[in-house]
Amino acid sequence: MSLRIVVTVKYVPDATGDRHFADDLTVDRDDVDGLLSELDEYAVEQALQIAENADDAEVTVLTIGPEDAKDALRKALSMGADKAIHVEDDDLHGTDAIGTSLVLAKAIEKAGYDLVVSGMASTDGTMGVVPALVAERLGVPQVTLLSEVSVEDGTVKGRRDGDAASEQLQAQLPAVVSVTDQSGEARYPSFKGIMAAKKKPVESWDLSDLDIEAEEVGLDGAFTKVEAATERPARTAGTIVKDEGEGGKQLAEFLASQKFI
Amino acid sequence: MAEVLVYVDHVDGAVRKPTLELLTLARRLGEPVAVALGNGAADTAATLAEHGAVKVLTHDASEYAEYLVVPKVDALQAAYEAVSPAAVLVPSSADGKEIAARLALRIGSGIITDAVDLEAGDEGPVATQSVFAASFTTKSRVIKGTPVITVKPNSATVEAAPAAGAVEALSVTFSDKATGTKITGRTPRESTGRPELTEAAIVVSGGRGVNGAENFSIIEALADQLGAAVGASRAAVDAGWYPHTNQVGQTGKSVSPQLYIANGISGAIQHRAGMQTSKTIVAVNKDAEAPIFELVDFGVVGDLFDVVPQLTEEIKTRKG
Ligand SMILES: Cc1cc2nc3c(=O)[nH]c(=O)nc-3n(C[C@H](O)[C@H](O)[C@H](O)COP(=O)(O)OP(=O)(O)OC[C@H]3O[C@@H](n4cnc5c(N)ncnc54)[C@H](O)[C@@H]3O)c2cc1C
Ligand SMILES: Nc1ncnc2c1ncn2[C@@H]1O[C@H](COP(=O)(O)O)[C@@H](O)[C@H]1O
């Protein structure tokens, strides 16, 4: 039987753009160009490699996000994923991590899966908890934060590099995996891939397709609330000197004036 | 007074500093009750008591070392049910965040990750977070259930505050999911003898400009003169010049030391994300246009191979 892989990808505001908050203190997704979260490109890459090493596999990319989130799906499809699911509903605006994990888990179950592959964190929320939450909801093993991953005979193995130790992990499928940016460069879509992606199926689901009530998600259903957001004041301009042979000494003088030495 | 559950990060009984910082923060919200799991759990009690833990709940079982995350979630949930705390605080490590998130889901609560400060509020704890590569500061609250909050290292000053620290055995029944992910091997990190990156008062970092693993000795020599930790940009890590555990930035560590010295680092947004809340920032870069100079208190436009050794030498001379 074929190995069904679902990759969760997020559409995020470009980190190199001027990211800010909207009036309702949610992430402003209108004024800054969005893209497929770079950290989720690693998830797509590892999913494609696992699929390439399997006898028969199918890679579905899944996103929850606004209309434009389709761009993220297109990118993943052009990298080589087979099909895509877009969960889109006005009531999803403002959904937090707990809500996101609910919608992802329901969509993953509806799609059917043996393996879920996620990124290590989203580049906007940077929580890094959604994969663990999805595993908890699905009731399957979490094999997360892997810098190396492989699947063979229904078993997923990987290496998790932590602060205190590097751990070798192993679990039976079905399972939820997340991969770090140490897992291997993500491929660039080829011209052929980009052309092929245009013909690949993208399904759209809304909350009713997933039997989720509007109150369970969105700003109304959120478990957390941002009460204030303030821009960090720009750092005051410092002193900059050009090294003309004394740069190291001048720096030492500065450090001494600040009592560091 | 309300009790606040604090999850203890320790290595064989040696409590790591971020947990002691959590105890400082927990005391602002109520009486800290610590939860220590695994090998050496009971040995943490004396240190925890010195820093304000009124009670230390302990449990040891081989499951904690043999299976990933879930056994610890089961235990923290057992502690939660035994104590009915006003809040649950967990250090923001990789394990910590996942444990906290799964607990929050189980107990029907919201979760806030990576707080850099906590205050008591009329409607429960208010968490300060640093977002969008530290360009914004937010204040947030958990509005459903018992707040579960993970806190970054260096978010508070460790303070002694002697308390009873009575050790109590926690009774834990593992769920059938606890053994889902087996840890089949573990290679502990070798200690470099230098301070922990996230805990250091001074961090000296090198980037692509260092141009080779062997040249990192220049960075290390400066760090050692200052008693500093060594950091690296992702470019330096990807090139294989320095270990990933030392990477500073969005996908590495975030640091907030008194002094950050960036050498041969351009200052990309993802690097800034991990260092721009440092108190004082200095940089050495041969490109006067490098964005890192927008952040600095003092910058030297020059070749790091000239400037850094001269700086190291000058510090040595001044120290006498
Ligand atoms: C999703 C994502 C996550 C990322 N996460 C991180 C992260 O966690 N941490 C991180 O650091 N980056 C991260 N990056 C990468 C980041 O975008 C930059 O590519 C990286 O920080 C660049 O490293 P650098 O400054 O060392 O190299 P460069 O940008 O190449 O800069 C090198 C600098 O060294 C200077 N230089 C060269 N030679 C000398 C010399 N002899 N003396 C003095 N100066 C010299 C040059 O003028 C230049 O400014 C991430 C990127 C993405 C997309
Ligand atoms: N809206 C979303 N749609 C699809 N996947 C998501 C979404 N949000 C988070 N994820 C997945 O969860 C991972 C971790 O996200 P986070 O916990 O928000 O940092 C991401 O790398 C994605 O794989």
Automatic annotation (TrEMBL), chain A:
Keywords: Electron transport, Transport. Residues 24-214 form the Electron transfer flavoprotein alpha/beta-subunit N-terminal domain. CDD domains: ETF_beta. Signal peptide: none annotated. InterPro entries: ETF_a/b_N, ETF_b, ETF_beta_N, Rossmann-like_a/b/a_fold. It comes from the Bacteria. GO terms for cellular component: cytosol. Its cofactor is AMP; FAD. One of its GO terms (molecular function) is electron transfer activity. Belongs to the ETF beta-subunit/FixA family. Heterodimer of an alpha and a beta subunit. The electron transfer flavoprotein serves as a specific electron acceptor for other dehydrogenases. It transfers the electrons to the main respiratory chain via ETF-ubiquinone oxidoreductase (ETF dehydrogenase). This is Electron transfer flavoprotein subunit beta. It comes from Streptomyces argyrophylli.
From TrEMBL, chain B:
The keyword Membrane does not apply. Pfam families: ETF (PF01012), ETF_alpha (PF00766). CDD domains: ETF_alpha. FAD binds at residues 208, 233-234, 247-251, 264-271, 285. It comes from the Bacteria. Coiled coil: none annotated. Binds 1 FAD per dimer. SUPFAM superfamilies: Adenine nucleotide alpha hydrolases-like (SSF52402), DHS-like NAD/FAD-binding domain (SSF52467). InterPro entries: DHS-like_NAD/FAD-binding_dom (IPR029035), ETF_a/b_N (IPR014730), ETF_a/FixB (IPR001308), ETF_alpha_N (IPR033947), ETF_asu_C (IPR014731), ETF_asu_C_CS (IPR018206), Rossmann-like_a/b/a_fold (IPR014729). The keyword Transferase does not apply. Residues 4-187 form the Electron transfer flavoprotein alpha/beta-subunit N-terminal domain. Its cofactor is FAD. Keywords: Electron transport, FAD, Flavoprotein, Transport. One of its GO terms (biological process) is fatty acid beta-oxidation using acyl-CoA dehydrogenase. One of its GO terms (molecular function) is electron transfer activity. The electron transfer flavoprotein serves as a specific electron acceptor for other dehydrogenases. It transfers the electrons to the main respiratory chain via ETF-ubiquinone oxidoreductase (ETF dehydrogenase). PANTHER family: ELECTRON TRANSFER FLAVOPROTEIN ALPHA, ELECTRON TRANSFER FLAVOPROTEIN SUBUNIT ALPHA, MITOCHONDRIAL. Belongs to the ETF alpha-subunit/FixB family. Heterodimer of an alpha and a beta subunit. This is Electron transfer flavoprotein subunit alpha/FixB family protein. The lineage of its organism: Bacteria, Bacillati, Actinomycetota, Actinomycetes, Kitasatosporales.
